[in-house]
Amino acid sequence: MEDGADVTRIGAPRKMGLRQERGRPLATEGPWRSPTPGGSAGVVLLIEPHADSREMYTEYLRTCGFVLVIAETTDDGLARAVEADIIVTGIRVPGVCDGVELVRRLRHADETRRTPIIVLTACVFNPDRQRALAAGCDAFLAKPCLPDRLLAEIRRALMLRRLAPPSSVSAPTRAKSA
């Protein structure tokens, strides 16, 4: 499988040039380093019902400088979304709605309209992917997903948000790449 084949990006060029060199961490220099003021790499809302996945991604992202806000249900995710610089959710998350409906609701709320959303899921069939993209996610990552892959996608999405003029984003531009 070609590198990048398990990710669908919205509103970005096909290749971002992110490659890991032997012995060197992925994307640790330049503008990727600290996208938010104050030294934190940003606040990630991780909506993940599975404890093992939640723990793995939380520990990795914390070591990379991110502040984590954790939610196990879509109810909690909706309540805490305004705290986040970026949101990572699955499709099959328990709560008042599934992950796709969560994305749709967040895209329609003024407070979270511009917040990047990454769908990270084991639901990798094309109809699931299409539903998530149509709802407005910025990227679709297939599980299993290594933490450094998620990290690269989070950093890419945060950088794109910083570069976009505030009035230009009411919903993601839908341009699919793999």
Explain how this protein is built.
The chain has 178 residues and is α/β, with parallel strands linked by helices. The chain has a single domain (7-12, 40-161), classed as Response regulator (Rossmann fold, 3-Layer(aba) Sandwich). Helices cover 32% and strands 16% of the residues. It is built from five helices and six strands; from the N terminus they run ββαβαβαβαβα. The chain has helices spanning 51-63, 74-80, 99-108, 126-135, 147-163, and strands spanning 7-9, 42-47, 66-71, 86-89, 117-121, 139-142. The chain has a six-stranded mixed β-sheet, sandwiched between helices. α1 (51-63) links the parallel β2 and β3. α1 crosses α5 (147-163). The termini are close together. The model is unreliable at 1-37 and 169-178 (pLDDT under 50).
The level-1 CATH class: Alpha Beta
- Estimated helix fraction: 25-40%
Please report the distance between the alpha carbons of the first and last residues: 11 Å
Q: Tell me the name of the CATH homologous superfamily.
A: Response regulator
